[in-house]
Design goal:
The protein has about 180 residues and is an alpha/beta fold. The protein has seven helices and six strands; from the N terminus they run ααβαβαβαβαββα. It has a single domain, classed as Glutaredoxin, CATH 3.40.30.10. Helix 1 crosses helix 3 and helix 4 runs parallel beside helix 7. It starts with a helix and ends with a helix.
């Protein structure tokens, strides 16, 4: 029971964008293995007005091509309550390459490495998702899926989805 509580606390700390340790920052962002359940817990953790979840891999050319656009949108909206959740679909032996790629892209927050059964992971995130990469999901602050795109996401579509998700939670709070 204590181990589960520790894992949950670590997941919430990651979701909240807790800074990485000094040693981890020097080697690149922290990348922790996580199941779909843990990823969804990070998405639903309190404190975000919207969440962008991007599943990518270093060996995926479209993932690498879209990543700067995703990070530009994250940078533009993070101060407004957007939480980024990045999930690498790389294999365990590719984590150093994934960490290097994240560092090169300016990622300064902890990220995840997909763990567990592929189909369970895919179906838990969205039954509409075939498993193709990249995959981008936008959630509102309550954890409700607002947008999904499989393949390289058009930056304008992603930005509009983020704006809608940020507005949705703001609208609900005002009307409450």
């Amino acid at each position: 029971m204590l181990a589960a509580a520790g894992i949950a606390a670590a997941g919430i700390a990651l979701a909240a964008g807790a800074p990485a340790s000094g040693a981890a920052r020097r080697g690149g962002p922290v990348i922790r293995p996580a199941t779909a359940r843990q990823i969804l817990a990070a998405v639903r953790a309190p404190g975000a007005r919207a969440v962008v979840l991007n599943v990518w891999a270093t060996w995926c050319v479209p993932c690498r091509e879209e990543f700067p656009d995703v990070m530009r949108i994250v940078a533009a909206y993070r101060g407004r309550g957007l939480r980024p959740v990045l999930v690498s679909a790389d294999f365990d032996d590719q984590v150093p390459a994934a960490r290097r790629f994240l560092r090169e892209q300016g990622v300064d927050f902890p990220s995840y490495l997909k763990s567990g059964d592929d189909m369970e992971f895919i179906n838990a995130l969205s039954p509409r998702w075939s498993g193709a990469l990249p995959a981008t999901f936008v959630y509102d602050g309550s954890g409700r899926l607002e947008y999904f795109h499989e393949g390289r996401v058009p930056p304008l579509d992603l930005e509009r989805a983020v704006q809608r998700a940020l507005g949705n939670i703001a609208g609900r709070k005002k009307g409450a």
